[in-house]
Amino acid sequence: MAPEPDVATARAPVNKWLVTVSVTFGTLMGAIDASIVNVAVPHLRGAVGATVEEITWVTTGFVVATVLVMPLTAFLGRLFGQKRVYMFCLALFIAGSMLCGMARSLPALVAFRVLQGFGAGALQPTEQAILRQTFPPKEQGMAMALFAMAVMIGPTLGPTLGGYIVDHYSWPWIFYINVPVGLLGLFMVQRFVHEPEDILAANREMATLQRKNMDWAGIALLSVGLSTLMYVLEEGGRNDWFQSAGITGCAVVSLFSLAAFVIRELTAKVPAVDLSLFKDKVFLSGTLIGSVMFSVLMAVTFLLPVFMQEVLGFTAMQAGLALMPRSLAMFMVTPLVGKLYNKVSPRLFVGVGVLMFAFSAYQMSHYTLDTSAGGIISTLILQGVAFSFLFVPLTTVALTSIQRHRLSDATGLNSLLRQIGGSLGLAVFATLIGRYMVQAKAGLATHLTLGRPEVMGRLGAITRAMMARGYDAATAQQASQRMLGYLVARQATVLTFEKLFLLLGILFLVVLPLLVFLKASADGPKVDVHVEI
Length: 533
Hints:
Growth Hormone, Chain: A, mainly alpha
């Protein structure tokens, strides 16, 4: 395929809001699909006859494929055109969704999820670049606010939407629902989204150089390094991490492949991935803070439903609905932050957001067995405001000094590190649950000696309650011991989650020193944009 012809000067201006709606459909669906499958796992297992370990490949395959495409989005956009790449990937995502709904075997479902992931990989970075190229400089904050709403709300909306669809329809519809929405997005992109003339000219020039100096070695090293890294992060917890020879081997391969990739890209004449962007301290710090933020977001999104279901006794639907206030808070506050971006220092926004999240994590570390839904919701609303304060300034200021024709490279790297951060957060905190649980049980068990009056009093009270219900003395005594063990395990679970929530808040405070570099350039590029204002 050749790049699109240069017809920008003859084309009528397109309203920026139509462009925004057009490219947001794909990003929102991709973000939702990363988490919507989790609630349908029992149904998927029954449909394809898979074990718990085997069905995890449905998620792992999607994530690995998505991550492989993200950093290559700009490379593909220069060769074939930014708009064409977006439309092709959206069509691939739609086709993958349809095939996933039709799959009735595990290999077919995994293969189609990989296909879906390849399509989803280019959607986020391309939308981010298109919005930055479409909105005028004074409205970049609002552009990133709209992007943030799709990226952040998607993962929290996915489980709730998936639970509703599975409960009221059947599991294939978690995939089929993408088809009509995706087709509408495809039509709107074709009709309303056009590449600016300066971007087309720059891409044509770079494409000529790329074709003469194809970086096949860099692409191969990147593919091997990222696929093995994501396999380690996604499957490590289920395979006892480095106790598994497979996980250890993949970790070693990933380490050497990514190191060789960095060396290759820094020395290649025309690199496939422009790592020199990280020389920009603002871009580097904004991307790193964003990665930590997304790892925290994904960890909290994972931990809270588990806490509500396993400790407080919520159903899956109730847990999903309890998370909705955070999404609603982000939906309401994010546009406001976008409007205020040019009037308030991004460092102030991010600093306040970090402190707000740390305080919400401190509140969560005091959850008990008596915590009500209201107590959880109030904290989640505070978290939603905190994430809005964080994401909009981070994604905006990080790209401030990036040239327009390099925005696709920057957004691809930004999306990649954000995705890796989310996977790392999930992997680490899912592993810590088991380890902290063992420690908490051991700590409580040291106090359960039969000689202690408190222990004997509790056992006696439970035994008498059992005998009052008709049990004989021996059976009641055995049952009281089992009941005490259950109470200890439940309390150990509460202590585990309290420790994890507090750890999240403390870890997030570590990024505060990076705020020194988050200063938007006052003399950034001012480029006329071919849209209606």
